[in-house]
Amino acid sequence: MKLLGAACASVFALGIAFGDTALQLSNPQYDTLTPIDSVPSSQQITTVFNNSTGDALVGLQALANPPPMSNPDRGVQLRSVRALIHYCATSPCAENDPAHVTLLAIANDAVYRDARSGSELLVLRATLESLGVLQIPSDLNILVPQLQHPSRDIRATAARALRDLGNTQAIGPLRARLTIETVPQVKTAISDALRVLGQPI
Question: Between 3.40.190.10, 3.30.420.10, 1.10.1740.10, 1.25.10.10, what CATH number should domain 95-201 receive?
């Protein structure tokens, strides 16, 4: 019985459609992208994608932004979204870098952008956090509208992402939201963002 289980495990692969091809995750890839008690490092991810940063980037792009109706494994998708920040070709990351472009595509996708509940909301949250970390000034245009999102978690995440972005043009929208925000968690995130951006309140 153990032999049969091992044989089944060795041929297990998770297929995810991407354009005209399908990305097949090997057991090591799947195991790296699914732990619940740790976050995989970029070195671990690169190792399981043929020790190639290029292969890792392509794989992460496919996993982070799967095609509609593909029913992705949300745990794998979330880890892929978060891992993309480590695969920019330059530091700081360029606006047209494939990793950044993938994050923008997710943030602009109505499935995630307009989500009100469920796992899509988690993907949106991870995407906004990742955009903040990349510190590309033009991402202000993606993050500011999320200050109006119905979800308090997304509003708080948007405020933290604007803090991390470091673009002082966010001060006005953050102050405007603070005047009407009623949720303490969000107010705290906005106040912290304003403090970091140089506007004590």
Answer: 1.25.10.10
Q: Which helix (H) or strand (E) holds 100?
A: helix 98-108
Tens-place pLDDT, residues 97-146: 999 999 999 999 999 999 999 999 999 999 999 999 999 999 999 999 99
Tokens of 7: 């044989």
Question: Which pTM value belongs to this model?
Answer: 0.86
Q: What are the residue boundaries of the structural domains of the chain, listed by start?
A: 1-87, 95-201
Task: Give Cα separations from 194 to 22, 91, 172, 178, 198 (angstroms).
Answer: 44, 25, 9, 10, 6
Q: What is residue 17's three-state secondary structure?
A: strand
In whole angstroms, how far apart are CA 83 and each of 62, 123, 151, 193? 12, 13, 24, 24
- Amino acid code (one letter) for 185: Q
Name residue, tokens 């459609």.
17
* 6: alpha, beta or left? (left if phi > 0; alpha if psi -120 to 50): alpha
* Whole-number CA gyration radius for the chain: 19
Res. 155 pLDDT band, cuts 50 70 90: very high
Residue at 11: amino acid letter:
V
Q: Closest by alpha carbon to 53, among 16, 83, 20, 23?
A: 83
Structure tokens at 104: 């923008």
